[in-house]
């Protein structure tokens, strides 16, 4: 609606003029300039290239945290279109300290802004060479500001997301899904990010409880859990690995199959022959209330995956990830 209202003023403006308006002292002109860039760069590759050459990227970044919220909305909306399917513009945004400014903007309690910011982050995460940097710079704040509150983790159970909150959460989980397919270092950062895995598990459990397992955010969440489970045993922190192995697995390296003691083989013959106290830590690990990355190996997560396999009938991506 805002673009329709402003479009009557687009007849006498071009891209160079719009970029100049971004530097005006009048917020109305800044809104007009950003709105024109947003409109012009929606699906025009040549316009995106021209806007970059005119230095639109650094000027828009400076408006992300403008005192006028309407300017903020249009600046982030313009950037979202500007970087879509354009690797050079994504890189330009990152080089202009754009990630830091986006995370500052994410603290604003405005759904339109938060939709734009999470959409930008999702677009950025499709570039393989940016994934590790994004994981390093964004995970903690994104979890604290979006994932935990909108999943119901760490607070009252989520009753219902409104349409904007659902889109914000969907963008954020799409961002995580892209990151989770990156390097071992990025997977480790994600597993160890306080609250991240809990939020995904809580949201998926809630979606199952209210009959929304076909939800696209559930698909994203379960795909992230699947990706974070990849090579889990090899990539697990040494402290966690030591807890899970009890005293048997490393001591019996090279032992015949079925004789290794550990969390993953609780019914092995050797375990049954040992005194109960010998593997008390292992049993404690299995029976404890999982938190954080412990969910990835806890027997309790099997119940969640089972429920998805039983109830999700329409989304093959979700069931494949659960399997």
Automatic annotation (TrEMBL):
Keyword rRNA processing applies: no
Keywords linked to the UniProt accession: Cell adhesion, Cell junction, Repeat
Primary site of residence: other
InterPro entries attached to this UniProt entry: ARM-like, ARM-type_fold, Armadillo, Plakophilin/d_Catenin
Membrane-crossing residue ranges in chain numbering: none
Annotated GO CC locations: adherens junction; cytoplasm; nucleus; plasma membrane
Name of the protein this chain belongs to: Plakophilin 3
Organism (species): Mustela putorius furo
Lineage: Eukaryota, Metazoa, Chordata, Craniata, Vertebrata
């Amino acid at each position: 609606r805002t673009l329709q209202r402003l479009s009557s003023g687009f007849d006498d403006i071009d891209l160079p003029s719009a970029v100049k308006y971004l530097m005006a002292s009048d917020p109305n002109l800044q809104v007009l300039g950003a709105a024109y860039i947003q409109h012009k760069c929606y699906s025009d590759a040549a316009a995106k290239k021209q806007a970059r050459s005119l230095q639109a990227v650094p000027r828009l970044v400076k408006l992300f945290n403008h005192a006028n919220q309407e300017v903020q909305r249009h600046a982030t909306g313009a950037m979202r279109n500007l970087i879509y399917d354009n690797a050079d513009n994504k890189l330009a945004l990152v080089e202009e300290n754009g990630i830091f400014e986006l995370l500052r903007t994410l603290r604003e309690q405005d759904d339109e802004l938060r939709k734009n910011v999470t959409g930008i982050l999702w677009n950025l995460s499709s570039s393989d060479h940016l994934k590790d940097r994004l994981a390093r710079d964004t995970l903690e704040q994104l979890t604290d500001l979006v994932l935990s509150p909108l999943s119901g983790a760490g607070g009252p159970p989520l009753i219902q997301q409104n349409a904007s909150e659902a889109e914000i959460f969907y963008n954020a989980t799409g961002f995580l899904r892209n990151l989770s397919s990156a390097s071992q270092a990025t997977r480790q950062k994600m597993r160890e990010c306080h609250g991240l895995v809990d939020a995904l598990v809580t949201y998926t459990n809630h979606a199952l409880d209210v009959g929304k397992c076909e939800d696209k955010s559930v698909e994203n969440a379960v795909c992230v859990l699947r990706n974070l489970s990849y090579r889990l045993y090899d990539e697990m922190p040494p402290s966690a690995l030591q807890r899970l192995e009890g005293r048997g697995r490393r001591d019996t390296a090279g032992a015949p199959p079925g004789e290794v003691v550990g969390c993953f083989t609780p019914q092995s013959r050797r375990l049954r022959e040992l005194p109960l106290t010998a593997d008390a830590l292992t049993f404690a690990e299995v029976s404890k209330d999982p938190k954080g990355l412990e969910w990835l190996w806890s027997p309790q997560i099997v119940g969640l995956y089972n429920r998805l396999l039983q109830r999700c009938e329409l989304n093959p991506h979700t069931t494949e990830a659960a399997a």
